[in-house]
Amino acid sequence: MNGSINKNKKTGKWDFIFDGGTDPFTGKRKQIKRRGFESKRHAVDVMTKLKAERLENEFLDLTKMTYSRYMEDWFEERKNRLQKTTFEIHSIYYRNVIKPRLGHLKVQQIAPIQIQKFINDLVNDTNYSEHTIHLIFRIVSASLKKAKVLKLIKDNPAVGIALPKIKRKEIRVWSLEQVNFFISQAKKIKRLTRCHIGFLISIFTGMRQGEILGLRWKDIDFDAQTIFVRQTLTQYAEIKAGAKNEASVRSIHIPNKLVDELKIYRKQVVQEKLFHGQSYHDNDLVVCTRDGKPMIPRNFRKEFYNLVEKVGLPKIRFHDLRHTHATILIQQNVNVKLISERLGHSDIETTLNTYSHVLPDMQKSVSDKLDKIIGM
């Protein structure tokens, strides 16, 4: 770990740099740099201390490395790969659930039976839902999978663990008649919320909330009647390039009725830009505040629930508009592969599993058609 200490000609202060060894996660050499020391002695002292810390980690006996020690580095890697909200959720579950129960174990000594007991205890001794337990397990499994890649362990002890069966929640959707009622009655509401255009986009496209709130005018080709999903808005109202997964970055053909509504709404946005002038926050967003700022997701959902109450329809989650869109298309015998692509699912199996409740009701229509087309 050779290093050098030099006086910075521009600042007149002392800087140092030394070789910090190989990063076990990236395999790359890492240089440790520090700047701005008032004296050379201070720079020497700090560099010596940092070198000692690096050496301690470098020569750490891997057989003694605890799971909590390993997870410190693993989460540093995850911080740059996960969305902010996802990272924070995973960190909370690690600190509150995983670390107290598994953190003391030596990484190389973790056995499948210990992971199974960990899961069993969550099922029997906590009030966590099946979905939450599956999420907690995925965090553990992913960390141990990485440990195997790094050759810290020979086998992943999380493989083959039995998990609680997730009870499929009944999806609440509106019927086609209720959708038409919502659209017709909303137009009669005095001072209709500006978020209404976002509700229409969901009904006509099945886009996710984050995709709708991240939609820009330049992502809409009015001539080709196509919306391009290229960015999303997080729960913290932060604009994020890309979408949920590769399949989610997609194009969606939209009907004339939505095109007309978007054109009408765009005139309102243009007027707001002129009114606010230089104080307008021009993010080019379709659904935004009056001064152009991103819409806070929870406020957007609140506006939807208020409108639903005003028109007197059964309350559903905003995300259920996406389910409503898909269900209506399935009931109209639209090809499931096309629906899957429209929704941005990673594969058609996701679509079939999510909307399997609709398919049995369609079986009779299939048999009725067979009666008509096959003669006997």
From TrEMBL:
Residues 169-368 form the Tyr recombinase domain. It comes from the Bacteria. Residues 65-148 form the Core-binding (CB) domain. InterPro entries: AP2-like_int_N, CB, DNA_brk_join_enz, Integrase-like_cat_sf, Integrase_catalytic, Integrase_recombinase_N, Integrase_SAM-like_N, Tyrosine_recombinase_XerCD. Keywords: DNA integration, DNA recombination, DNA-binding. GO terms for molecular function: DNA binding. GO terms for biological process: DNA integration; DNA recombination. The keyword DNA-binding applies. Belongs to the 'phage' integrase family. This is Site-specific integrase. It comes from Peribacillus simplex. The lineage of its organism: Bacteria, Bacillati, Bacillota, Bacilli, Bacillales.
